[in-house]
Amino acid sequence: MSYYVDDYLPDLGPDDADITSHDAYTTGVPHATFNRLRTDDPVHWTDEADGSGFWSILRYDDALAVSHDVETFTSTKGIRLEEMDEEETKARLTMMELDPPEHTRYRRLVNKGFTRRTVESYEEEIRQLAVEVIEAALPKGEFDFVHEIAEQLPMRMLGRLLGTSDEDGHRLVAWGDALLGNTDPDFTDTPVDLTDTEAYRMVPFRSPASIQIFSYAQEQAADRRACPRDDIITKLLAPMADGKRLTDLEFNNFFTLLVAAGNDTTRYTMTHALWSMMNNPALWEAWQANPDLTPTAVEEVLRTSSVTMHFRRTATRDIELRGKTIRAGDKVVIWFPSANHDPEAFDRPYRYDLGRERNDHMAFGRNGPHLCLGAWLARMEVRLVFEQLMKRVDRFEPAGPIDHLRSNFIAGIKKLPVRVV
Ligand code: HEM
After folding, report:
1. Distance between Cα 348 and ligand 1 center (Å)
2. Which residue of 66, 243, 282, 299 sits 20 to 30 Å from the alpha carbon of 338, by its own alpha carbon?
3. Residue 125 lies in a domain
4. Count: domains in the chain
């Protein structure tokens, strides 16, 4: 039995999509466009409607180099395509918008809670949660995989780490959806590019949900100040290496970052994986018959999903890259789905290979200080969900159309109706 399928995607999309347009992603990632750009113009300039523009980094090696060289490519001017003025950047500041050494000081507050070793100590708890979630969903026979399974496990586990209750998990998920889905009318009444969000320019993702998260975060902070616990919220309130503590605003922004980053990304990765396996049932059969494939299969799931599609840096000096002159002040955007399908880095990138040997993908970033904090947690959640599903289900069949998130930032599948066989 082979462990791979070639051409795992049913459709690579158009090759002339506007990669900045949120609408361009409502039918899936326009891989054909990324392929064309990566081949013909790997450091590609795009003009933007507001008169500015940005460089796209489309090749794997360049993405690694830009992530690594934090002196030339700073995070301090914003990390997404969205343009923010200085006042907004300051008000919405998290460690993501900091370079080392400041970045390191903030990250150390929580880093230990997410190391590989710490996450390994959660394995039994996560497995137990996966079993509970799956056993609650499967008897329904036909259901939305996203809502019933993929959403539940990251939500409950993140809640346990933060120290918030299971009941509050649903509110946190709805707020997190409104943030990462801030361009999708299904997730927010105020999509940033379709409505006037000027009133929210000073809060994360220009989203009114941030105001609700802030108020919840402050309630939680008050509770932990009164009764410290062994959880991430308590850690965020402790002094940093220099003795200073986070201000209320910094705490609110940090808490919001964790809620936004820790739910949807893992959920959509699981969803992409199942969708790919439903389109290519040979993958499910091969993985089910060979549980030893799991370590490499999980990495292949991450590479092919590339849920976080871009992060941005800003050049601090003029620099030449593949014959292009990037000027100081220019926006530079790394496109992860493109880097992760670069044939120079991945042999036959459109082969979904559960046994892929060389797979140094960039789904979590790589080679830089901002490497995903939750990488080990996400890996483990993906692994345990599929481990438990494969023990119980022979096949999932489609029970309706899927629905993609309207976003140039997150490759989300909002609905995946399935029937259990
Ligand atoms: C499969 C799921 C996930 C994907 C694909 C993903 C992807 C990413 C990427 C691409 C970055 C930026 C890397 C860079 O700029 O070099 C990042 C950063 C981050 N992620 Fe994740 N992530 C996932 C899950 C999580 C989870 C579960 C958490 C938290 C519980 C989390 C928390 C963060 C944080 C806090 C950062 C910022 C780190 C920093 O600035 O130092 N992520 N993630």
Report:
1. 26
2. 282
3. yes
4. 1
Alpha helices in 193-346 (DSSP H): 208-226, 232-237, 248-262, 264-279, 281-289, 294-305, 336-339
Residue 367 alpha carbon, nearest atom of ligand 1: 16
In a domain? residue 74:
no
297-317, pLDDT tens digit by residue? 999 999 999 999 999 999 999
- Round to whole Å and give the CA distance between 400 and 415: 9
Query: Is 73 within the bounds of a domain?
Result: no
Give the Cα separation of 202 and 113 in Å (integer): 29
Task: Kindly report the protein residue whose alpha carbon is nearest to atom 41 of ligand 1.
Answer: 370
Reported as a single tens digit per residue, the pLDDT across 230-277 is 999 999 999 998 899 999 999 999 999 999 999 999 999 999 999 999
For the record, the structure tokens of 411 come out as 């490759």
CATH of the domain at 258: 1.10.630.10
User: Using an 8 Å Cβ cutoff, are 61 and 43 in contact?
Assistant: no
Residue with CA nearest ligand 1 atom 21? 372
Average pLDDT over residues 170-174: 95
289 Cα–ligand 1 center, Å:
31
From ligand 1's centre to the CA of 419, what distance in Å? Answer: 31
Residue 221 domain boundaries:
4-28+98-306+347-420
Q: What residues does ligand 1 touch, defined as CB less than 6 Å away?
A: 67, 95-96, 107, 158, 257-258, 261-262, 265-266, 269, 307-308, 311, 336, 363-365, 368, 370-374, 377-378
Spatial distance between the Cα atoms of 22 and 413, rounded to a whole number of angstroms: 14
| Ligand 1 center from residue 374 Cα (angstroms) | 6
> Closest ligand 1 atom to the C-alpha of 269?
1
Please report whether residue 10 resides in a domain.
yes
Which atom of ligand 1 is the closest one to the Cα of 154?
27
Token couple for 42: 């790997």
| Mean pLDDT, residues 323-330 | 97
> Looking at ligand 1, which residue's alpha carbon is closest to its atom 18?
372
Q: List pLDDT tens digits, range 358-387.
A: 999 999 999 999 999 999 999 999 999 999
Give the burial class of 399: count Cβ atoms within 10 A of its Cβ; 0-12 exposed, 13-18 middle, 19 or more buried: middle
